[in-house]
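From the pipeline queue, job 12 of 40. The input is one protein chain; the requested action is below.

Action: predict structure.
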Amino acid sequence: MKLIDFDMMFDVKLTRLMEENKQKYTEKQWEDMIPKLYRKFGDTYVAKIKCTPKEYYAKMSNEELVECLRAHIREDVPTPEFLCTEIENRGATQTLIPLLRSDDLAEVAYALNLIGDNVEAYDTYFSLLVNGGADEDIRSDITDVFKTHADEMKERALQAYEKGLGKEYMLEILSRVKTRDDKVYTVLMDAFLTGEQTPMRASYLAAYGDERALPTLLQKIEDRSIGFVEFQELKYAIEALGGEYTEPRDFTGDKDYIAVEEASSKKAINTDPDRN
């Protein structure tokens, strides 16, 4: 398949246009104009291909579009927005799904971005979560999709968690279940009580919103051995569930506390008008 670098063509045209009008617009004005100029370029006749960039992709089948996308990725030729838009407009989910199983992370990322929240891809998405192999960012993005459908995914998430598959992702999904369910609450609470990843698992209890977790969270926050990050997340979870914890705590020697204080001090210095 012959790849057309439409982005390079646009850059050449843009450079010439900016040179011809360099006194006419400010840098900020050019920044605002470029997206509009790019869209206009999509409807501009290109002699080399005897059609516009949009028409070039509109003539392709779903399979050809996806193969063209893969070729752009493999050959490291910039992927034109016109190609991605045509794929999205077609709703070519079934043609994109095989890319989710690719060993090329770029292909997986493109496929996920183009498919988005589409039930046709849920089985493959879930497989990537529980079977591993996928990049952590990819799995995080998939989890975000399922969090918006947590009640529908509840049973699958519970079954996977009980089998020890994708446990942290399953907990995150379960934490967004809206219908109260003692089984979900028990799983979230038992995970918290293991003492592993306390800040994250406290946040799951906060997100789930069951006030029964308050006594356990209040007991845990009294533990003087916990660090600054754990304390902050526990305090947030307590407050999110309608509780309160006001006892002062000293984290002077905690490395995370020191890092936060140093960052805050630098920010204060940089924003101090008397120092500028």
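Job complete. Residues 89 and 114 are 10 Å apart (CA to CA).
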